[in-house]
Structure formats: C-alpha cells, structure tokens
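Step 1: inspect the first sequence and its tokens.
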Amino acid sequence: MSDAAKRRTGHVLVAADKFKGSLTAVEVAAHVTAGLHQVAPEVTVASLPVADGGDGTVDAAVAGGFERRTLRVTGPLGEPVEAAYALREDTAVVEMAEASGLRHLPPGVFAPLTATTYGTGELLRAALDAGARTLVLGVGGSATTDGGAGMLSALGARLLDAEGVPVAPGGAALAALATADLSTLDPRLAAAEIVLASDVDNPLRGPKGAAAVYGPQKGASAEEVALLDGALGQYAAVLGAALGGAALAAVDAPGAGAAGGIGYGALVGLGASFRPGIDVFLDVLGFAAALERADLVITGEGSLDAQTLHGKAPVGVAAAAGARGVPVVAVCGRLALSPAELAGAGISRAYALAELEPDPARSMAQAGPLLERVAVRLASEVLGRP
C-alpha cells in the first residue's frame, strides 16, 4: 500500500471467518478492532463476521442482523440437541452442523454408519413454519454420511425397504433402500428458493466422493467407507427410479458430496441450487453495502493454506473487495501460503499469530491477545500509524 493510500485509510472493514478451535468470527473482529484502535483510535472500524457455510454460519448471520431462533431437534445420534437457525424477514440461514454436526458427538465417539441428518430437516421445517421462503442451507462440519436421507425424511419423504418399512437412520441403512416417495414432502418446499451453500464441490460417490474423502474424518474405516459408498449408490439408484435421470446425473454434480452427501439430498430432493458458500453469505450479509465506505478490508481465518485457495471465506472476501478496488490484508493463526499465492488470491499481505507464538497450543490458547498484537503491527505497517 502506498504512503498516500495509508494517509487516506480512515475506514476499515473487518470481514474475517472464525479461527477454528480458538475464536469465533465475532471475536476475531473484536480483537482486531481493539488492536487497531490502540494505535489508530481515529480510524473507523466496521465488522462483518463472515462464514462459508460450515461451523459458525448462524453466528455470522446473527452478527449481520439476523434473529437467532433456537429449538430442540434430533441430533446425529438420535438424541435431542439444541440447535439454532437465523431469520431475517423471509430469509432463513440454516447451518446443518447446528443439528447434525460433529460438535454433537461425545469426545472420541463417532457414528459414521448411523449418524443422521434428521435434525437438519427439522430446522428447515421450523424455518418454513416461521415464514421463510428463501432457505440458505450451509453445510460443513457434519457427523453424517447419509446423503441427506434423514433430512428428507424429516421433511416428509418416505424412504422404505423391500418390506415397506422406513429404513433405519444413517448411511449404512441406505443399502436396504428399495423405494422412495418424495410426493409427501412438505408442499411449502416447492414454493421456496433453496440454496445449497458449500465450500466443497465433491461428487456424491467415488474416490473424491462423500464417503471416501470425508468418511475417515468421521471415524469410518476403509471397510466402512466402501460400505457407505455402496449404500449411497443404492440411494441414488432408488431416487433415480423415483425422480428420473436427472437424479442419477446429480451424483456427479458439484456439491453433491458436501457434508456426507447432504448436498445430493438437497439438490435432488429439495430442488436446491448450488453456490459457493462464501459467495452466498457475502450476498446475504450485505457485504457490498458494507464495502462502500471501506478503504481497507481485513479478512482471515485460522489457517491460511492450500485449502483457503479453494473457495474458503478469505478468498471470497478478497475477490469481492478487489472487484471494487479495495485493498485486502489478512490475519490468521498459521500461514502456509507464499507471497505469490497470497497475491494471486487478492491478498496483499498476511499477519500470522505463529510469528509471535510458534507453539500451536499456546497460540490457540492465547489467540485473542496475540491477535490484538498482530493488529497493532498491521496498523503500523499498513495504515502507517506509529
């Protein structure tokens, strides 16, 4: 940034994602603001916490002006859990991890074969009950690999085995699926706009599919991955027989494999459209309006690495800001991108907590104070303050 640009910087927009495991997106913005104001109290700092559809999406929506609605739904293990969605007028943001995420599993406990997305369907139904007509389904952080079958069941679909009995919860049970009747889905879905917001574009099946890529993260062994992949194949075949060739073709659609295949259930069963999560939420949260007065955008997330370059929040923020000619810098816990990679993503420079505290455990434990120190340095070097 030139010296002239530094002198002009009077409005800063902090649009960062969470630092997973240490700080929420709201907390990131607060600590950055505190650090900037230590050395540049005259600078106006606005915050717009962002998310890409995974953990923290509802929190970001609430910080952006949505109302939090909390209820009890079915958790991934079938037990009741408390979950929330966000509502503003007739738009609802539903985060599947709120109902069906790994966060609801006890430490060290996984259920790759039986975990269900039923609670996510209950959240969608609650949003419809509240008057939502645009449903943004953010997916990520799931404990499930059931292809969204639980979600569809909660919304009225009938998924039956050869005896006409509803199949059991979870992905493994889909191997016994014989017939599917989606004519019984909640009729309000047909009149709603449903957006599948995800930062991954995996297909449903195969070596890059839901079970193979993400099953091991949910505790699936190699044998269980193969079982789940086959069960998802049976699920797609039955839905294809019920809905036609488009349902079969959607197996390879971008996002079908997102969050244990819930993307496939949303695309095929709910008629959802797929969009990169960060693009959706920048629109929903009003990023364009927030950007209008900004001279500088500060984005970031816990780890800026190769995954960041594939649709994560900081790259989406940088692209949108760059299109308006607003410079972007980033803060992070760990930096694993070269200056050239950062520049290619539209980020002029990144400041990492690891530069101050190289021990990861201590860095995460002290993330707030460290981030304020990073922001002080950023203010000095980017804003030109002493």
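Step 2: inspect the second sequence and its tokens, then contrast the two.
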Amino acid sequence: MTSTTGDARPEAQPLAARTQQPLMALLIRLHLYVGLLVGPFIFVAALSGLVYALTPQLEERLYAEQLYTDGMGVPLPLARQIEVAQTHIGDTATLSAVRPAPRPGTTTRVMFKAPGLGESESRAIFVDPVSGEIRGDLLVYGTSGVLPLRTWLDQFHRSLLLGEPGRLYSELAASWLWVAALGGLALWLIRRRRAAGSTRPSGLRRWHSTLGLWLLMGLLFFSATGLTWSRWAGDNIGVARAALGMSTPSVSTALEGGEPVAAAGEHAHHGAMTMSGLQPATPALFDQVLAAAREAGIEAGKVEIVPAAASDRAWTVTEIDRRWPTQVDAVAVDPRSLRITDRIDFATFPLAAKLTRWGIDAHMGSLFGLANQLLLAVTAFGLASLVVIGYLMWWRRPAPVRRIGLRESLAGLSSRARGTVLALALLLGVCLPVLGVSLLLFLAIEALRDGLARPAPVRQSG
C-alpha cells in the first residue's frame, strides 16, 4: 500500500495502487446494487427454503394417516395391493409407478396418471400392505412423488407460484448470490488490510461481515446447486457437463430393436413426468420384476418400480432413499424374461456426477436426514438475516455523499484491468443470461439516476 507521506503523483504510484481505488469502488457499488435490487428475491428464496427444509417433520404429522399403518404381519403381494388401488381409482387412470412399503408399519404408494392432471402431477393411493385397506388418496408432484405440502412450498420457492415465468426470480437470486458472497469477501479482505492495526469495525457492518464469512461456503453451495435447476443457466450447465463427460449416468430402458431411452435423471424431483405413452401394466409383474431387481443387488428399502412406457421398453427399479449418498442404483428389467438389460451403480459414477447427486440431495435437505435439514435451516436463516442487516446498513448510512458508480469505476481502472473486468462480465453474461441481463439493468438504473440527479442548466436572462 502506498505511503501517505510519499510521492502521491499518479505516475509515481504503482499500477496496483492506482487500480485498487476504482476496483474497490466497483466492488462496493456492485455489492450495493445486488443487495438493494436482488436482495428481496434472495430473502424470499432463503425464507421459503428454510420452511421447505423443515417439511419432512411437518409431513410426518400432517400425512401420518396416509404414510403409516398399525397393521403388522405378512404383507400382501404387490399385485393384490395394486388391484385394490386400481379398484379405488377407477378405470380412467393409468398405473405409472409403485413404491412398496419400505418397512413394517408404513404404506405402499401406488401412483397413477389420470385425465385432468398436470404433466408433472399424479394421484398416489396409499395402501396398507397387510390388510389392503386404502389409507389415503393424494395429489403428488414430479417423478419423486412429492406430497401436497412440499409441492406447494417447492413451487413457491422455485417460481413464486407463477409457473415458468416465475422461475426467473429464483434464477436471478442464484445467479447473483455467489457474486455477492465473493464480493463481500473481497471487500472484507481489502478493508482488513487497510485497517491493519486499527480498531475493528463496529455495529451493523461488523455483524454483516462476520455473518457473511461464517456462511460463505453455504451461500456458494446454495448458488451453485440452485443454478443447476434454473431455466437458462441450468441448460448451459447441462450442456457443459455433457461436453466434458460429466453427466449423471441413466439406466436405458431400450430392449432389443428399440431406440435407446434413458430413465429420469438427477433432477427428477423438479422435472416433468410425461406418462402419455404408458401402456397398461399387469399387476402380477410387479412382484416378479422386484424379485429380479433384488437378486441383482437392489438392496435399499425405498425403491420405485416403473412399468414400461411401451412394449419395446424395459421396466425400471430404482433406489430412492436419498438419506444415504450411495443408494441410487437402478436396473432395467425385461418384463418378458425378467432379465436385467441395463444397470447403473453409484459406485461407478464419475466424481462430478457423484458430487452433483450429493449436492442436489443436500440442497433438498434429504442427505443424512435431520442433520442436513438443520444445517440448511441455519444457513437459510443466516442468509435472510444478511439481507435484513444490509438494508439496515443502507437505511442508516450517513448523509448522502457522491459515490463512484459502476461506469466511473470502470473508467478509473487501468486498460488491462478494465479489459479483464469487461471480458469476465461478458463471459458470465453468456453463461448466466439472467445475470447478464440484470447487470445491464443495473447500468440503466444508474444512468437514469445520474440523469435525474444532474442539475438543470441555468438560463441566463436576456
């Protein structure tokens, strides 16, 4: 850092010193804009995510009648349980998946597609596996069959219940969250070096910086995993992973002579469930297909059996216990011969695919159960608090002074630094389109503000 008693002429200052001041101003202004303009979206995403993380316990109580049963004894064959569910729902619905009771005291879930349901919706009939009693009939969402409470919270968290256009809100929050987190870290490091030996900052700024440092890794995690589900950035991430050979393997349901078709992938929880081509499935085959899968090494208690979508397709049996990071194996079974035609084992996944799987499950609060949920809830609450503290800092700021804006900060950088910043902004704008468009909006708002603040020219009287 340049001494205050030395030569202060611009040509005598090192390049780093001449660059640091406008770079600091650029970081401050960008951090402020993200906080003021994107902060409300981040706040809503954090609070809705906090509630979502705690829904498993709420669902345990709210849907206890559907999920659990007092019936103890030898369970009925799956075929009999499915027949009971089909009798209850009627002939207009088509069987789409079955989840056998994972342990004694729980129910079997038989899922159907029916006229009038959305593309990602299905009806789940909950059956007592011992007595065959119907325990419930609920509308569930996605290929993972999320129950109504979590469906509502999930859609609010993703899109504010506004459908596809509403997803821009969550993508905006995820796109800027990592920028705000790393920008805040950079500002803290610069200020700490400048203030070496002086007293530590007090009040709201100290709370804001300390909390941000503690939550840094969690904020980066929220941003990265949230972007994988986003509309625009998520598509780019998927293309990049495919090009690098990092895509998550999927079991193929193609039989001899059929076109290769992969089963639902890693984002099945949020994805659409297209069942328009489903063929009627014979209930007796479910017991046989499950037995074949068990012999092939599908050991998890929680599994889902999906019948073939066409006569030239295989059935699939997939482990769905997301509490354990390795129980996501799947097999494809030929319903004619009960032969295993394809399989995927988590142990053989590329490292990137494993990390993606763990990241998605951790983001949803499924990994390791309650510990994961509490960590998510604490981080989400801390993020919401960061936004509130940031607004309080802005509200209690001293009397307004002239601040250097984004454009002026860029102009003050050296040519090399300015070119680097602009190239980075362009790259990020292409990879994260919502971030790029909103950055242009920041600049437009700043230009409008400067135009309104500029004093009107004084007319001279004739």
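Step 3: confirm your contrast with the notes below.
The radius of gyration is 28 Å. The longest strand covers residues 134-141.
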